[in-house]
Amino acid sequence: MKAIDLYSQLEKNFVRPGIEEYWFDYMADIEAYICDNFRQRSMGLVCDFAEEINKVYTAVFPSDKVLSKVLDDNVTDAMIFLHHPADWDLTKEPGKVFHQMNTELLEKLKERRVSIFNFHYPLDNYGEYSNSKTLADALGIVVEKPFAKFSWALCGVIGITDCADIHELKERYSQVVGHEVKLYQYGSSEIANGRVAIIPGGGNDTDSVNEVIENGVNVLVTGLTLCNEYSIAVHELEKEHKINLLGGTHYSSEKFGCIAMCEYFETLGLQAEFVPDVPCFEDL
Fold it and tell me: Whole-model pTM?
């Protein structure tokens, strides 16, 4: 498939006109590899390295592990579709959470004609391939409605679970993501009216939790739940209103959208493969 045609199809299916993000402001270290499209909007095509695309890899973050896996496949004329254009790791440098792509690996991807494409808000925004919808599907939660607007995107869903209580939901969440998740039980183990709020990634913030409270929900399923100087206020809010909090890490709570995107690319006649990564358990 012509690369320009694939980029255009992605824009048509997922992007609203006039929207932009902020990523390029923090990517000076790899500026030489970034195309004008991303310089202007921080969205869509990041590195324009290919004219033809025969295979797509999807991933949550462009970690060394993910980029190296693509290179190890000895693939050419391909694309990496990312949810984030920078890697996430709370352990590398105090006060810094996102880290730029490895320039040595970028150079090799350029030589192999492997483009890099990014959809952050477009994949957060509620829809068939969104992080919230796909995580709800994986948990067997029937979506009632989208909610939690951040910028222009509706990043969360409220839905109905058949789990008997918060402990059964915790076990299911752990099984679904493939590792133990974190429970902050601030309220009753009963799930009020069987309704659960899901906001993958960084959904544990005061604005979102206030929406959870307004909707009469007492369970929030998200990614980042660590309690530190930046998040103590939201934890106190959850304690006050008896909101139970389940955290599955940034990566694990958002991987289902990228997994589902493989189906999207296959509908376009392209081979597609999700590249798994390692969760950052310090998120919890």
Answer: 0.97
